[in-house]
């Protein structure tokens, strides 16, 4: 399942951030590695909250403080568990699942895909910032691109995603996804 793959990508890169890597700049120009993790965790908690009616993130995912209240791995695991547990309560046939992104309801398939997309792309951001290999596989990228094309455009108006970056000859599936999401697949720290 795409959400499990995305969570594993995020889990792996968080686990492998070096001790001195949390302040490094990221492809999200305004945020360092800690802030990207806070944003990613907050988004996962947001999905869980919308589905279950439980608590929203303790801080605004779009204005991360840069200070973690617990160890990074704990922050990531708690957020991913909340998200996975919430999605486990939703029928795969559901046509209207409450989600924290406009239009605030999606089908199960689109909603869980959007949640996975968020975790996977931020795993990539953290990996690139800390010199790790990309956690995105070509198969994951193809599946996430299909999801992205169904819901990203309206979110660009809110600044959630940057404008699409023009493609280049030779782009692989991962590069195509990243460019669609407004990222330069050749970004380095």
TrEMBL record:
Q: Where on the tree of life does the source sit, at the highest rank? A: Bacteria
State the InterPro entries in the record: CHP03086, DinB/YfiT-like, Maleyloyr_isom, MDMPI_metal-binding
The Mycothiol-dependent maleylpyruvate isomerase metal-binding domain covers 4-127
> Could you identify this protein by its name?
Mycothiol-dependent maleylpyruvate isomerase metal-binding domain-containing protein
């Amino acid at each position: 399942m795409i959400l499990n793959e995305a969570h594993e990508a995020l889990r792996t890169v968080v686990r492998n951030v070096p001790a001195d890597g949390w302040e490094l700049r990221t492809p999200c120009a305004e945020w360092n590695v800690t802030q990207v993790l806070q944003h990613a965790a907050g988004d996962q908690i947001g999905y869980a909250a919308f589905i279950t009616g439980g608590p929203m993130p303790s801080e605004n995912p779009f204005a991360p403080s840069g200070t973690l209240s617990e160890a990074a791995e704990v922050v990531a695991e708690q957020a991913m568990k909340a998200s996975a547990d919430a999605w486990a309560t939703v029928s795969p046939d559901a046509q209207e699942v409450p989600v924290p992104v406009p239009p605030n309801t999606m089908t199960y398939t689109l909603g869980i895909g959007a949640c996975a997309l968020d975790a996977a792309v931020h795993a990539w951001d953290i990996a690139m910032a800390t010199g790790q290999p990309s956690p995105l596989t070509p198969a994951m990228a193809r599946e996430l691109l299909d999801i992205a094309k169904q819901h990203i455009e309206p979110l660009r108006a809110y600044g959630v995603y940057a404008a699409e970056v023009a493609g280049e000859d030779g782009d692989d599936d991962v590069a195509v996804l990243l460019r669609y999401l407004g990222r330069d697949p050749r970004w380095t720290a």
